């Protein structure tokens, strides 16, 4: 059997050469793999080793081998961001100094402002105003047509840039409603609540409201106006419409009049956001549904 | 124990297919010419689509996400056309495989076609089978090197043309051709060409049958799709066996009239031979290097060249054609294969060349001695006829495949013709579901995508229909119309408002339909959607 030239064992049924191995009468057929498959396997091993040398691969104690090509996914992201910044640099500088009132005439820049403004909004504004800009109690809904400080491009951009009632920016929009709980007599506030509900056309006690007319004129009209239409110069809400920032029911109104409200918004102008980002987010907010016409030049 | 175990690996045995001519070879030349011609030339066919549109007849424009096929233009959202075509391709393959076996492998698979082309080059430069075997064995000298290098150069040129043609399908071909030559083309174009050149060169020149046998999943899949009624290339062993060299004088007799019993008993020197003369023609022409007479094999791509080779031999020795033929596995006479006595008339005198009459046996004409009063075994084979070809092709299975295939095809054609060149998709803004305005009216916001598939800027007018009173406005536009640039999709924010006194404002949901109309052509499209009210009656 040691003669290498001896005839190799052949399986009778298939006529295939066998390896000579037999288990319980079952013979193992010899179906040799083509050698190039083997070489392909070796090639993948070589490739794998070369790859781990070229690219970051082997875990070490505190980091990993960095690979001789110096590639990293983080580096790639940084590159992509730089490339994006470079690509949008021209538009950004154009946008930073653009007149927002006429921006929509430049279709390319306008679309850029809206889509980049949407990203700015989601990153910076949605925490309070909601990802859909619908706001919440105390945080204005930016989709409706009611604006405390004005809803044209310039007013929105100013609010974004300087914020409201904050200490950080001297140009922040500012006004303060007194806490009338310390000013008015007991029993006057419920009457005022009925009067305010009457202004808004809500269900109210007409007799009580009647009695509060003078109270309103003396204490409220200076800011909210004789007819309750509000005053945007002071961010005083319009009391006659259907929209209530803090709620229009009796409890909420009583609380508002007794303790007042003091909503704060941080300034988002530089250095927090770039001038282009402020312009972009103002453009985005303006086109959400409530944007008002810009004053003619 | 001193035995060295047999090697687990084996080197590739080179295969030197011989030139052959015949019906199937001619058919394959034609198919090769047509398919390669389409592949290489199609990118250069022009098709005028008007200004600002590519004028290449077939173009997969990845940059602007469009696929152009003559008059058809597919946008990304119409990808179901591609899915439909893939389903049709799948069903088509089922159909062809169950009717005709591995006909794809044998005639149209790129691996087969390019290998065939490379073999043509090889034969042209190095000569036919015997010359190539000699050359393979010869020592490396100037002559051999010259032949090999010229062969490789031609292969390489074909490969470069193959890789080059591929990239032309993805951008304007004439422009890219100029850029490629001037080294101005994008890196990815050169990389694609390089990779496809390498695969074509290696797969067509060196790997050949190894690709089919070891790399391709298709032989396994197709084997499962075939059944005993499928037409495939096969050898009629009941007719050919036992094979052997026919000796002069005995040939005619042995061919048709001998019987085992007779030969053994009375004429011992005349062997009971079948029609196969063991000339190896079928093996020598086989590009896969197999012997079809061993039966159905995974390696067989059914290229049918062995049929041509065998028919040529059968003609030469004066036997009927079709010893190797397209046949179905159930296509044998109702006897055990090898029990040849049953299919051959018995009791005839082999030595005496008796006058014969022609009786059709299994599609061929067998010479049966006339005046044979009573064959001891009634010749089953003279009554037996193979199923006609159409019965193999028109079976329930293939007809079901055909019906499914046609159904998908008709669906796609209908979809192609009813699609409009303007379209809109409406995605209602649901964050928030509605917005209350100062005057108490309820507004819903919709992001409407307007698609203008024509080559001109067009003015679209938007409107809505609903049972309830609703008002429509467009963001940033005083009118209800908007210009959509040519060949673009425009996102328009649309507001639908219900006044406080309108039922829709307090209803939970109200149905409405948004319409877009091309102001010039009056063609319209619409999409149904929902208006959300406060839900507080």
Automatic annotation (TrEMBL), chain A:
<keyword id="KW-0560">Oxidoreductase</keyword>
<dbReference type="Pfam" id="PF14715">
    <property type="entry name" value="FixP_N"/>
</dbReference>
<feature type="transmembrane region" description="Helical">
    <location>
        <begin position="36"/>
        <end position="58"/>
    </location>
</feature>
<feature type="compositionally biased region" description="Basic and acidic residues">
    <location>
        <begin position="1"/>
        <end position="11"/>
    </location>
</feature>
<dbReference type="GO" id="GO:1902600">
    <property type="term" value="P:proton transmembrane transport"/>
</dbReference>
<keyword id="KW-0249">Electron transport</keyword>
<dbReference type="InterPro" id="IPR009056">
    <property type="entry name" value="Cyt_c-like_dom"/>
</dbReference>
<keyword id="KW-0408">Iron</keyword>
<keyword id="KW-1003">Cell membrane</keyword>
<keyword id="KW-0679">Respiratory chain</keyword>
<comment type="pathway">
    <text>Energy metabolism; oxidative phosphorylation.</text>
</comment>
<feature type="binding site" description="covalent">
    <location>
        <position position="128"/>
    </location>
    <ligand>
        <name>heme c 1</name>
    </ligand>
</feature>
<feature type="domain" description="Cytochrome c">
    <location>
        <begin position="112"/>
        <end position="200"/>
    </location>
</feature>
<feature type="binding site" description="axial binding residue">
    <location>
        <position position="265"/>
    </location>
    <ligand>
        <name>heme c 1</name>
    </ligand>
</feature>
<feature type="binding site" description="covalent">
    <location>
        <position position="220"/>
    </location>
    <ligand>
        <name>heme c 2</name>
    </ligand>
</feature>
<feature type="binding site" description="axial binding residue">
    <location>
        <position position="177"/>
    </location>
    <ligand>
        <name>heme c 2</name>
    </ligand>
</feature>
<dbReference type="GO" id="GO:0009055">
    <property type="term" value="F:electron transfer activity"/>
</dbReference>
<keyword id="KW-0472">Membrane</keyword>
<keyword id="KW-1133">Transmembrane helix</keyword>
<comment type="subunit">
    <text>Component of the cbb3-type cytochrome c oxidase.</text>
</comment>
<dbReference type="GO" id="GO:0006119">
    <property type="term" value="P:oxidative phosphorylation"/>
</dbReference>
<comment type="function">
    <text>C-type cytochrome. Part of the cbb3-type cytochrome c oxidase complex.</text>
</comment>
From TrEMBL, chain B:
<dbReference type="InterPro" id="IPR051684">
    <property type="entry name" value="Electron_Trans/Redox"/>
</dbReference>
<keyword id="KW-0004">4Fe-4S</keyword>
<feature type="transmembrane region" description="Helical">
    <location>
        <begin position="152"/>
        <end position="171"/>
    </location>
</feature>
<dbReference type="GO" id="GO:0005886">
    <property type="term" value="C:plasma membrane"/>
</dbReference>
<keyword id="KW-0408">Iron</keyword>
<keyword id="KW-1133">Transmembrane helix</keyword>
<protein>
    <submittedName>
        <fullName>Cytochrome c oxidase accessory protein CcoG</fullName>
    </submittedName>
</protein>
<dbReference type="InterPro" id="IPR017896">
    <property type="entry name" value="4Fe4S_Fe-S-bd"/>
</dbReference>
<feature type="domain" description="4Fe-4S ferredoxin-type">
    <location>
        <begin position="266"/>
        <end position="295"/>
    </location>
</feature>
<dbReference type="InterPro" id="IPR017900">
    <property type="entry name" value="4Fe4S_Fe_S_CS"/>
</dbReference>
<dbReference type="InterPro" id="IPR000535">
    <property type="entry name" value="MSP_dom"/>
</dbReference>
<keyword id="KW-0812">Transmembrane</keyword>
<feature type="transmembrane region" description="Helical">
    <location>
        <begin position="399"/>
        <end position="418"/>
    </location>
</feature>
<feature type="transmembrane region" description="Helical">
    <location>
        <begin position="27"/>
        <end position="45"/>
    </location>
</feature>
<keyword id="KW-0472">Membrane</keyword>
<keyword id="KW-0411">Iron-sulfur</keyword>
<dbReference type="Pfam" id="PF13746">
    <property type="entry name" value="Fer4_18"/>
</dbReference>
<feature type="transmembrane region" description="Helical">
    <location>
        <begin position="79"/>
        <end position="96"/>
    </location>
</feature>
<feature type="transmembrane region" description="Helical">
    <location>
        <begin position="187"/>
        <end position="206"/>
    </location>
</feature>
<keyword id="KW-0249">Electron transport</keyword>
<dbReference type="InterPro" id="IPR032879">
    <property type="entry name" value="FixG_C"/>
</dbReference>
<dbReference type="Pfam" id="PF12801">
    <property type="entry name" value="Fer4_5"/>
</dbReference>
């Amino acid at each position: 059997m040691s003669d290498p030239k001896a005839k190799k064992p052949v399986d009778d049924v298939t006529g295939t050469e066998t390896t000579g191995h037999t288990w319980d009468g079952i013979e193992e057929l010899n179906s040799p793999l083509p050698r190039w498959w083997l070489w392909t396997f070796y090639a993948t091993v070589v490739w794998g080793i070369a790859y781990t040398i070229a690219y970051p691969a082997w875990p070490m104690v505190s980091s990993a081998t960095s690979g001789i090509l110096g590639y990293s996914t983080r580096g790639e992201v940084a590159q992509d961001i730089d490339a994006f910044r470079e690509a949008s640099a021209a538009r950004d500088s154009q946008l930073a100094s653009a007149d927002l009132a006429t921006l929509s005439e430049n279709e390319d820049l306008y679309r850029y402002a809206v889509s980049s403004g949407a990203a700015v909004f989601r990153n910076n504004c949605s925490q309070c105003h909601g990802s859909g800009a619908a706001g919440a109690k105390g945080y204005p809904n930016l989709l409706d047509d009611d604006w405390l400080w004005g809803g044209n491009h310039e007013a929105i951009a100013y609010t974004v840039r300087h914020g409201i009632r904050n200490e950080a920016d001297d140009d922040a929009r500012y006004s303060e409603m007194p806490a009338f709980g310390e000013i008015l007599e007991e029993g006057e506030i419920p009457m005022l609540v009925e009067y305010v509900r009457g202004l808004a056309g809500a269900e109210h006690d007409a007799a009580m409201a009647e009695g509060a007319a003078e109270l309103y004129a003396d204490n409220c009209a200076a800011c909210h106006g004789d007819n309750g239409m509000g005053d945007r110069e002071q961010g005083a809400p319009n009391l006659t419409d259907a929209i209530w920032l803090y709620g229009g029911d009796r409890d909420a109104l009583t609380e508002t009049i007794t303790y007042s409200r003091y909503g704060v918004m941080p300034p988002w102008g530089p250095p927090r956001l770039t001038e282009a980002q402020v312009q972009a987010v103002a453009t985005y907010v303006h086109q959400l549904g409530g944007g008002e016409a810009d004053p003619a030049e | 124990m001193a035995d060295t175990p047999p090697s687990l690996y084996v080197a590739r045995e080179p295969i030197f297919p011989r030139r052959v001519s015949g019906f199937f070879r001619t058919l394959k030349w034609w198919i090769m010419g047509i398919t390669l011609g389409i592949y290489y030339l199609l990118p250069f066919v022009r098709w005028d689509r008007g200004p600002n549109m590519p004028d290449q007849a077939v173009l997969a424009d990845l940059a602007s996400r469009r696929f152009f096929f003559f008059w058809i233009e597919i946008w990304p959202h119409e990808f179901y056309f591609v899915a439909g075509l893939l389903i049709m391709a799948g069903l088509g393959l089922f159909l062809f495989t169950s009717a005709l076996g591995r006909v794809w492998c044998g005639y149209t698979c790129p691996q087969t076609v390019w290998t065939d082309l490379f073999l043509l080059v090889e034969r042209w430069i190095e000569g036919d089978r015997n010359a190539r075997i000699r050359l393979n064995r010869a020592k490396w000298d100037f002559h051999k090197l010259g032949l090999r290098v010229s062969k490789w150069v031609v292969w390489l040129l074909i490969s470069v043309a193959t890789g080059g043609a591929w990239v032309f399908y993805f951008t304007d071909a004439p422009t890219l051709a100029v850029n490629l030559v001037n080294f101005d083309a994008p890196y990815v174009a050169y990389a694609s060409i390089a990779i496809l050149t390498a695969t074509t060169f290696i797969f067509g020149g060196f790997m050949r049958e190894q690709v089919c046998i070891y790399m391709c999943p298709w032989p396994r899949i197709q084997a499962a799709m075939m059944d005993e009624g499928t037409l495939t290339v096969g050898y009629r062993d009941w007719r050919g066996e036992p094979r052997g060299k026919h000796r002069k004088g005995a040939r005619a007799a042995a061919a048709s009239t001998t019987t085992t019993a007779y030969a053994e008993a009375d004429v011992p020197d005349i062997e009971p031979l079948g029609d196969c003369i063991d000339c190896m023609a079928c093996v020598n022409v086989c590009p896969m290097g197999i012997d079809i007479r061993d039966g159905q094999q995974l390696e067989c791509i059914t290229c049918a060249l062995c049929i041509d080779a065998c028919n040529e031999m059968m003609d030469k020795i004066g036997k009927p054609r079709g010893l190797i033929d397209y046949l179905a596995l159930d296509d044998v006479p109702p006897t055990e294969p090898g029990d040849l006595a049953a299919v051959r008339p018995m009791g005839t005198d082999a030595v005496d060349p008796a006058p014969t009459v022609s009786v059709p046996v299994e599609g061929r004409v067998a010479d049966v001695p006339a005046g044979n009063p009573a064959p001891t075994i009634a010749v089953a084979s003279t009554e037996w006829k193979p199923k006609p070809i159409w019965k193999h092709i028109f079976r329930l299975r293939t007809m079901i495949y055909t019906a499914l295939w046609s159904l998908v095809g008709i669906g796609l054609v209908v979809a192609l013709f009813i699609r409009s060149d303007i379209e809109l998709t409406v995605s209602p803004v649901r964050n928030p579901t509605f917005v209350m305005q100062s005057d108490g009216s309820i507004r819903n916001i919709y992001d409407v995508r307007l698609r203008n598939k024509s080559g001109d800027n067009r003015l679209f007018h938007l409107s809505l229909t609903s049972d309830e009173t609703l008002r429509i406005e467009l963001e940033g536009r005083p009118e209800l119309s908007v210009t959509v640039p040519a060949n673009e999709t425009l996102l328009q924010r649309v507001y639908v408002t219900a006044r406080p006194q309108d039922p829709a404002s307090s209803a939970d949901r109200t149905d409405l339909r948004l319409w877009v109309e091309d102001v010039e052509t009056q063609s319209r499209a619409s999409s149904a959607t929902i208006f959300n009210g406060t839900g507080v009656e």
